[in-house]
Amino acid sequence: METNYSPTSRYRWLILSIGVLAQITFAVGFAGIPISAVIMRTDYHFSISQLGFVLGSMGLGVAISEIVWGILTDKLGDKVVLIIGLVSMGATFLIICFGFVPKAGMFPNYLSLGILLMVAGAVGGSINSSSGRAVMSWFQDNERGFAMSIRQTAIPVGAAIGSLLIPYVASVYGFGRAFLTLAVLSFIVSICVWFWLVELKISNTSKGASHTEVKSPFKRITVWKVALAGAVLTFPQMSVLTFSSVFLSDKHHLNLVTISIINFCINLGGGCLRIITGRLTDKHKNRRKVISIIAIIAGIAGITLGLVSDQNAYVVVSLLVITGLAGNAWHGIGYTEIAVTAGVRYAGRALGMMGTTVFAVSFIIPYMIPFILRLSSWNGVWIVVGVASLIALPLMIEFVKIPTNTEGVSNG
Does the UniProt entry include the keyword Nucleotide-binding (predicted)? Predict the structure, then answer.
């Protein structure tokens, strides 16, 4: 849909609001379901390995579909892809609600539930590329870090909402109502997108575009390095998100209310950090340096948590919070960096690349943690998380001298 709007129009803030709302919708389910892990393990009669597969299934779905959605977003536009994703995700949650929840002594097979959650992730993955491309096209480079950080803040905000809402609904009313809530939310937001999302036309070429800027990001190692840095920094985020409830319950005997509050604070605090880092890096043009600092903090906190995970609960929770905050803080500037490096014309593809690596790790982690527990203990889990986080450091340091592409819809 072509309009006379421009990236300097105030309408860009409404576009950002729609992107935030769409991301919150996805995050409520993506995070709320894992935070309900203790309840799910009991209600569905899952083993720890079966639970790990189910909790990672949405991440796998996103990972296998994200690049495809990125390409489709660049070709079909933000609005069409966003509506398709929201409606399809809502329909999948509706199917789970009516046919794949425990009732009358019947317990759904973990593979069936996992596959359906994989489908929900696969269609919901479209939200990342489409809403991200919409925001990138409506904001100029001196505001993109801030705008994209606000959009990425929707994920921990949605996760914070999901960490309280979904466990509560599941424990009081059952998982049928929990999945119905997710379905209704998806349908409502798709209607908002239909009425209020307006697309800006992005030209095929931009003034001053270099040879690398018109080359597909799939063929550029500079773009892949950012995507890989995002992947390893997903280790602290997803480890805390998916298994912190089991860790704190089994190891330190904390109750569900306390665990939910801890996760709520981690996600809300992570959202605030995304906005702060986005604003600061817009001002100082140092996104890669800040990502490196976050990697160091996550690495040190994760390794230290592994070394003292048997100690005082207050110390353990403090280190867990730091690890989780660091795992959440990088997203806004990371997604901005990969989109800017690729160029706005290829923003959908670039965001798809980041989404693929990030959500591939999101699937691997819940499946990997039970494996590490069998070989070692929770000490080993958190040490692996810390070491993995530090891998982002050489990727970003090596990248420092590479000029940043600031291609946009309009820089005037």
Answer: no
E strand segments, 68-132? none
- Tokens, residue 145: 């870090």
* 205 vs 221, more confident: 221
Name the 3-class secondary structure at 240: helix
Alpha helix (H) residue ranges in 285-402: 287-308, 313-329, 331-342, 347-375, 378-390, 392-397
In this structure, is residue 208 part of a structural domain?
yes
- Residue 103 has φ and ψ, to the nearest 5°, of -160, 145
Count the residues in the chain: 412
- pLDDT confidence of 412, banded at 50, 70, 90? very low
Domain of residue 76, residue span? 11-397
Whether 407 maps to a domain, the answer reads: no
Whole-number Å distance between alpha carbons of 295 and 288: 11
Half-sphere exposure of 52 (CA within 13 A, CB side): 16
Q: Is the separation of the CB atoms in 412 and 301 below 8 Å?
A: no
Q: How far apart are CA 336 and CA 348, in angstroms?
A: 12
pTM over 0.70: yes
Residue 6 lies in a domain: no
| Spatial CA neighbour of 85 closest among 160, 189, 184 | 189
Distance CA(335)–CA(136), nearest Å, equals 10
Q: Is 401 exposed, middle or buried (0-12, 13-18, 19+ CB in 10 A)?
A: exposed
Residue 35: band (very low, low, confident or very high) from pLDDT cuts 50, 70, 90:
confident
Q: Confirm whether 406 is domain-assigned.
A: no
Asked if 332 and 149 touch (Cβ cutoff 8 Å), the reply is yes
CATH of the domain at 55: 1.20.1250.20
Q: Identify the bridge partners of residue 106 per DSSP, sorted by sequence position.
A: 103
**Is residue 186 a contact partner of residue 393, using CB atoms and an 8 Å limit?**
no
**What residues form DSSP beta bridges with 103?**
106
